[in-house]
Amino acid sequence: MSTANAYAAPSAHDALTPTTIERREVGPRDVAIDIKYCGICHSDIHHCRGEWGDVPYPAVPGHEIAGVVSAVGAEVRKHAVGDRVGVGCMVNSCGECANCLKGDEQYCIPGNTQTYGSVDRDGTITRGGYSSHVVVDEAFVLRIPDGLELDVAAPLLCAGITTYSPLRHWEAGPGRQVAVVGLGGLGHMAVKLASAMGAEVTVLSQTLSKQEDGLRMGAAAYHATSDPATFEQLANRFDLIINTVSAEIDISAFLGLLATDGALVNVGAPSAPLPVAVFSLLLHRRSFAGSAIGSIAETQEMLDFCAEHGIAPEIETISADQINDAWERVMQSDVRYRFVIDSSTLG
Ligand code: NAP
Ligand code: ZN
After folding, report:
1. Of all atoms in ligand 1, which is nearest to the CA of residue 290?
2. What is the DSSP string of 251-319?
3. What class has domain 2-149+313-346?
4. Where are the domains of the chain?
5. What is the pLDDT of residues 63-92, one digit of tens each?
6. Residue nearest to atom 29 of ligand 1 (CA)
7. pTM above 0.70?
């Protein structure tokens, strides 16, 4: 066992505070990672505030981890001491179900082991990347390509893969009209990735306050969802809409923006159910779908794609004592466009 410095939420209502946690011994297939940076995902807030259900407190969130390998187990082949690596939202899966066998471990049928708040193989509760180091099975550790600095690589491990995967699955590319709802951490990655894939991208944000940024990131058009004219002007327009909004929105209004055979894919994860206008679906054979992160192989493909295309998230690096303020800003939609914790400030 080793002791890591960490920041933890003691309950659903209290601010995060500095603490220490135990990490397991490095097993034969484990990689120990000195964490250099960890992104702040809105999921960290949903989870720690108990919005998705019961939480084993104290909760140490963080699933956008970038760092350097400090030790490896005897059977580890994929990674070596000194390698630049990343860990995303999952740290294990059953390895035996139909989805794991076809390489979709994010959809592990008994459930993958999440980087935080899950029961691990040894019965302990997983603790995430708001911490100084972590021990992870080598199969769930990603290689960070040379072309990506560790600070900007961190958010790719969740925001990057969560948008890359549905863009690939629903075939964003030349000749396809893609809309991205919400220009936050996930949304700004969706804009950059979809435009690099060759799609024509439209941002649908609450206001026009970030229009210049959205166009610079590669969007061809930008509209305010607070303006009812947006929904008339863009009716039946899009082949694919990626909804990244963390709150409940009027999904049926957005379904009306889909072309026939178009798909609206929800990656945003509000806790309450979203009512859907069935007639809007059936009259134009539209789909309403969801998507969770991506597989390990697809995450590696996404990292390599970002390095090759020079794609990086836009980050604001903070010290650990600014985490609670950063969370407040994320909840106010005041993020440009991902907060990243400098792990050397954890104490
Ligand atoms: P974020 O940075 O806070 O971005 C969310 C954006 O949604 C905001 O920037 C804002 O964009 C818009 N928004 C927020 N509240 C809104 C409201 N009441 N009405 C309309 N729009 C609103 O969050 P994130 O880290 O990108 O995460 C987004 C969601 O994805 C969260 O629910 C998170 O849990 C979920 N998530 C899911 C997966 C998955 O595997 N499916 C993975 C990671 C995260 P504008 O200011 O541009 O309007
Ligand atoms: Zn996340």
Report:
1. 41
2. HHHHHTTEEEEEEEEE----SS-----HHHHHTTT-EEEE--S--HHHHHHHHHHHHHHT----EEEE-
3. alpha beta
4. 2-149+313-346, 160-290
5. 999 999 999 999 999 999 999 999 999 999
6. 268
7. yes
